[in-house]
Write a structure and sequence with these properties.
about 170 residues; mainly alpha; rod-shaped
Length: about 170
């Protein structure tokens, strides 16, 4: 993980918080109970996290002849990084849900300014979108790698079958 990743996370979260502040700060409402729809939106990436974990785990199913040793060592490193990102994403997702639930609980008890709630929800929503984009990028790179390995394997099989046919043809001539 490099500094560009964290800077883009901060930028994405800040822009989202500002947009939510501008869009929803004029609302005047009192909260009687927690909106479970918002809490459930923050739980949606959990299924994507587990799907991505299954994709990462399926990389070990690649055969020894399918990838080179250099690719295998790089793949082990990338797999470890991806699993750490997935664990961190799961923790962040749960923290977002609990912090939002606590915010809504206190908003229903005491009078919290709508400006604060909208800014906080905007920042959380920005983190959520950034996390989803990161997980989508991991899934895409895994699927691209698997596709490339399959393509190379098919090309190798096709080349070997052509060479076998040519050698049979030369023997017949």
């Amino acid at each position: 993980m490099n500094i560009r990743y964290f800077l883009s996370l901060i930028l994405f979260t800040s822009i989202s918080a500002y947009l939510f502040f501008e869009l929803f700060s004029d609302l005047d409402f009192t909260m009687k109970k927690a909106p479970w729809v918002i809490l459930s939106i923050f739980l949606l990436p959990v299924s994507l996290i587990f799907n991505t974990k299954n994709e990462v785990s399926s990389l070990t199913e690649l055969g020894d002849g399918d990838i080179t040793e250099t690719e295998r060592s790089r793949l082990v490193f990338q797999k470890d990084v991806a699993l750490k990102i997935l664990l961190l994403s799961l923790i962040v997702c749960l923290v977002l849900v609990f912090s939002t639930a606590i915010l809504f609980y206190y908003a229903s008890i005491i009078d919290i300014k709508v400006h604060f709630i909208s800014t906080f929800l905007g920042a959380e929503f920005g983190m959520l979108l950034f996390m989803v984009l990161t997980l989508w990028r991991i899934n895409t790179s895994i699927n691209d790698f698997k596709t490339e390995v399959k393509r190379r394997k098919e090309a190798s099989n096709q080349a070997s079958s052509i060479s076998k046919r040519l050698s049979k043809k030369e023997k017949n001539d």
